Amino acid sequence: MRFVIVTGMSGGGKRTALKMLEDMGFYCVDNLPVPLIEKFVELIGAQNREITKVSLGLDVRADQPFEDAQKVLEQCRANGYTFEILFMDCSEAVLMNRYKESRRMHPLSPDGRVEDGIVRERLILEDIRRKSNYVIDTSNLLTRELKEELDRIFIGNVEYNSLMVNIVSFGFKNGIPADADLIFDVRFLPNPFYIDELKHKTGEDEMVQEFVMESADATVFLDKLTDMIGFLVPGYVKEGKYQLIIGIGCTGGKHRSVTLANELYRRMKDKGNYGLKISHRDIGRGR
Prior knowledge:
The protein has about 290 residues and is an alpha/beta fold. The chain is built from nine helices and nine strands.
């Protein structure tokens, strides 16, 4: 039987993940009182049961210390029960925006500032996050991208190291992405903007792609970049990094950067046991 504990930051996507696991055939239970957790584990672990996939949601609530839930889980493990832990994480800035949009109060700060509740919760969850089998940072994930990640783990059963690589194209004239870890400038390549029939197209169009990739420098740059990223990723995984944002920029973020970002994505896709997504920040700007 596969038993998965789903926990993480409030607003990080735990309930969305549980719904997706339910669609995958998991029997899901959320917010079970701590005193019932051990009994629940004993029941699902009994022999000759039809249920083969179970997911239990645990979160921080003011009415019961999370440390008690952790102690129960450790006791279950000591008694021979095996389980995996999926931790749903998110950056503080994105969590703040999500709470503002939903107009909800943080469970650890019902009468105070949401920011204070987030800080308290992260400290409480620090230990279980460190012990988790999978950590998914939903800060920059769309719902369908989260589903793809869960499919990789729980349907594809691929080896998963919790690193999400995000390739972002952008225009320097609109500013460098504030959260980027690596920035690469492709303004040295011929600019399609000065070609009348390409000016109003983007790097998603075949004509622009062909124009950009006709440059020998584009191919050499892409070869070296792919090789370097392939060298860096294992090191980031070893250091426990959960998100790597690679920014590729040109002047306006519509032609060269989009083309190179798409090519890098194509080369990296299915080449490693990490999550991969792509976005074009400025492709529609000014339209």
